[in-house]
Amino acid sequence: MITLEEIEEFLVPKNEVNILGTRSHSKASEIYVDVSFTYPREKYNWEGSVPIHYRRTGIFANTAQE
């Protein structure tokens, strides 16, 4: 399973994406990374969740590159 450290190392630019944590729903086989995206030019911040394991759509990110 991919670690948060591996994901953070792959992010470019690092100052525009902050990883807040992970959460999972074991019964549904889903894992999400909670993130905060910063858009400096627009002075806007978006917080949400990005699925990294989501069986219903076939998303199975096992490496930072994926």
Write the layout of secondary structure elements.
Elements: H1 4-10, E1 17-25, E2 30-39, E3 44-54, E4 59-60
Antiparallel strand pairs: 1-2, 2-3, 3-4
Q: Helix tally?
A: 1
**Poorly predicted runs of 5 or more residues:** none
The backbone outline, from C-alpha atoms, is: globular
Strand content: over 45%
Descriptive account of the structure:
The protein has 66 residues and is mainly beta. The chain has one domain. 11% of the residues lie in helices and 48% in strands. The chain has 1 helix and 4 strands; from the N terminus they run H-E-E-E-E. The protein has one helix spanning 4-10; strands at 17-25, 30-39, 44-54, 59-60. It has a 4-stranded antiparallel β-sheet, with no helix packed on it.
